[in-house]
Amino acid sequence: MISISRQQDSSGSFTSNLGASRGLEIIPTTRLEVSVSPPPYLTHQSGTPDGFGDLSFQVKYRAFSAPEGKGAYFVGVFLAGSLPTSSANGANHTVLTPTFAAGKGR
Predict the structure, then answer these.
(1) Burial of 8 (C-beta count, 10 Å sphere; 0-12/13-18/19+)
(2) Mean pLDDT for each 10-residue chunk of the chain (106 residues)?
(3) What is the pairing mode between strands 95-104 and 73-83?
(4) Domain spans, the chain
(5) Distance in angstroms (rounded) separating the CA atoms of residues 21 and 23
(6) What's the burial of 83, exposed, middle or buried (CB within 10 Å: 0-12/13-18/19+)?
(7) pTM > 0.85: yes or no
């Protein structure tokens, strides 16, 4: 199944996103999750050339956690990013976004 989105900018021009960053998600262990999204194809009504966007990925690692009634907490680290595939429809460089996350329930 392919996802499609359409967005209008301030000048009234539309950009369509075919793929909409949907991809493959794998959970190889109880603590690790990996997702990879192939580059979407972008079409523009403006003068920007049509073409592929960037390949994106995310890795999530759950370091510590406990369910409700046993502490209800979560501590994990995430690494998200994108790899350039085309300068006209994406970044001209690799983007990495490391994140530390923690949460506590009641």
Answers:
(1) exposed
(2) 81 85 89 93 86 93 95 97 86 95 94
(3) antiparallel
(4) 23-104
(5) 6
(6) middle
(7) no
